[in-house]
Fold this protein.
Amino acid sequence: MSKIFYDRLIVLEEIEAEVKKIAKTREEKEELWQEVDELVHHRVLGCILDKLPEKNHQEFLEKFHKAPYDEGLIPFLAERIGQDIEDFLKLEMGKLKTELLQLIKGK
Amino acid sequence: MKRQPAQTYHEISRQKIDAVFLRNKLHLKNIEARSSFSEKFPRVQQFFIEKGLDLGKIREHSAQILGAGALTGTLFLAPPTGVKGLPAPSEIINSLKLAGESKTADFPQKLLVDLLSNILPRVVRPLTADEEKSLQQIFDQVIGIKAKANLEGEHLNTSYGLIGAEQHLARYPGDNLYNHPKISVGDEGMAPGLGAWGYFASSREKFTSSLEETEKWYAVVQTLYLPDWNKRQPFLREWYKYRKVLIVNTDNGNAVVAAIADSGPAAWTGKHFGGSPEVMEYLGGPRYKKGPVVIFFVDDPENKVPLGPVDYNKVNLTAYSV
């Protein structure tokens, strides 16, 4: 299994469609997907850490390191942040999608 | 005129440049993102360094933990959400017998949907071994196909997820949408790139009717995210090539046998599987683009199960004399 707790909140289908137009082989496609994947992880975690009070960072990081797949992190974060993380992650992913589409189409 | 050795770049295809160019641009953006993250959260960055963890490779880290847990049998997963009290095998068999005695027009498809709704959680997630065993029994008894989540020790990352519509694949060099069969409504067109195993045949002459069926009824699974995908090559690549899977639409009970012919979708699409236009049309109609399905490997060592729709609702199911 390869899974991160926020996977189901990240939907960037348009980017996948654009990548498929450009990549001609499995290797090319998966390389490009990996680059996007890395960007997503940095953006999502940055966004979460921005919202999460600093006093909770260490506890979250320990949990995340131990079980990055654990969806129990979603209610853990919601409780400490005081809001559902789904809303602000969707907003952040919307921004990332716009940036990536500009980058891809502006090549 | 013959090109100078220093000008061989003229022979690199425009498309190749595009993929490399885009990868470089994405890579630069990644470097910026990493740098910005480190500046903003130096303590967090230090935490990752001390743990020897690269945030960009967190998916691999997750796969390693889960893979190690599965091997040692000490998977420390929290109980998945939405676990229902599973019906005992005897209950499933009884309900089949009862339903068989009072056959209605929608039998056995409604029976399958009812059984699935009793077992599956509301939101897609990896299933437990017990849930998968129950489904295995139901598929065998109701659909009449022997299919397993775990076949020959191989298991997908999840057997219950969202399937998305894919495009037709190029079957041989020179194949194009003009000569490619299409579905009547809402056809997705042809993928610009090749499937994960390249062309189905090296030429039109070598393209057999069997391969034609393979492309027509193809499935996409996330082999790239399998925890041991890179370590167990070339075995896994061969094992998954055109591997038959049973795909069951859990909303309406439509079922199709398909062959794995591409890898994907990307993890950040919210989808877990893909289906050819024909697969998707059969599962949910011409406008069906995404939905929950269960995917199991077909246990078919003698290669007797044909690809395509499983019309279990049109056959006599007296065979379930368990």
Remarks:
- Chain A touches chain B through 53 residues (CB under 8 Å).
- Residues 2 and 59 of chain A are 23 Å apart (CA to CA).
- The longest helix of chain A spans residues 26-51.
